Amino acid sequence: MAYSSLVLYYLSQRRVPGRSFRHFFFIPTSLALVTSLLILFYISTTSNLFTHHHPNPKTPLQINSSSSSSTFSFTILRHKTSSTPFAIEAPLTEDGGGQRIESQRSLGPQLGSDGSHVNNNEVFHDRHIFLEDYKEMKRSFKIYVYPHRQDDSFANALLPVDSEPGGNYASESFFKKVLMKSRFITNDPTKADLFFLPFSIARLRHDPRVGVGGIQDFIRDYIFNVSQKYQYWNRTGGADHFYVACHSIGRSAMEKASEVKFNAIQVVCSSSYFLPGYIPHKDACLPQIWPRKEEPHDLLSSNRTKLAFFAGGINSPVREKLLQVWRNDSEIFAHFGRLTTPYADELLGSKFCLHVKGFEVNTARVADSLYYGCVPVIIANYYDLPFADILNWKSFSVIVATLDIPLLKKILKGISSEEYTRLQSNVLKVRKHFQWHLSPIDYDAFYMVMYELWLRRSFSTVTSSNF
User: Fold this and answer.
1) Radius of gyration over alpha carbons of the chain, in Å?
2) How far is CA 411 from the centre of its chain?
3) Where do transmembrane segments lie in this chain (predicted)?
4) What predicted TM-score, i.e. pTM, was given to this entire model?
5) Burial class (CB in 10 A: 0-12, 13-18, 19+), 128
6) What digits encode the pLDDT tens for the residues 82-137?
7) Who's near 332: CB < 8 A, 6+ residues apart?
């Protein structure tokens, strides 16, 4: 700025010829423009204004919404953790395009939300708080389920399944089946912490009376009927209600019932905070788990000779990129199509198992990896991972941004044998949290989902002229 003033003073002392008079305006204008650009550059490189951050778990998240009957704010008060829930600072396009981003494994020491160093040896953010809260959750947590009779015309979608759940979307049915027999259920809605909307997205999808095209109308009508018959939905606008869905069609199922999407707690497998409709901290990720009955016999003694393994269809640009780079590699086995060897053998024979984004950020491969003692490698930007409020994913998995697929081997081989041993040891510690049982076992998938719901209970406050 001092240099600009000197130039202006010098020019003011000169007699400027007529033809050069325009330079009198050009020089200071140019200098002002350059100075402004330098100031903007300085601000952009030193300020947080232009940096996106995942919500801090210690900071309440407020979501203001309104309906015809009330206006309310929904606030989640997260329990104190040593680090934020998992978040990849990833490109702003789903296909991996955008600015170069370093994967989490290439970062230096991680800092928690309180500024302290994160202990990546611990699988829980805060074990003491979790265990203490878990006991209270089991003692006091109560849920009211909107009742439906066996002769209801849509009992198939509103009541638990009769058989044992199976397939890719079993988590949805497992949760409902186990919940309905649990001690968490109360028949007195005045004692309920939360209200369960028991419709099954997966079963509605296959019902010829509804199908994919009719799910939105069904949900709209269901919420209308609940709000007319019961007083509980209207008093909070649905903020103390929740539903569970594992099929990705659940993402669009609420389009004609926006109050469910924005107010109620959505417990869903397709938990991507890149796309609208899923709100981290309000909503929760349901782990997609393929049911298995028997424990692997050689889980601990397995000889893991492959560096990394993936098998699946080519249904996303991310998987196309993985195939393009690694399909002929001798250490990273990237297979597309039907395997000629047993899937379990490949998981047991690999150090790292790749979870690569397909149509959605979620697949059952994370739970598959953990079940077979293989360290999961998450290649799915914006995936709000299961139980991220509770578990420290950095302690038992490797997070790789989709742009870093060409660096995958360098990242994995850069992990020392000591660190790999730690990662796999923690995999064996957390695998019990990703298993369903018809008779629930402490800390299994059912109880972990219940704990996520317990964290979200009783945080809705109603401000309405009608109350």
Assistant:
1) 27
2) 23
3) 21-43
4) 0.76
5) exposed
6) 333 333 333 334 444 433 333 444 333 344 444 444 567 899 999 999 999 999 99
7) 306, 307, 308, 309, 326, 408, 409, 412
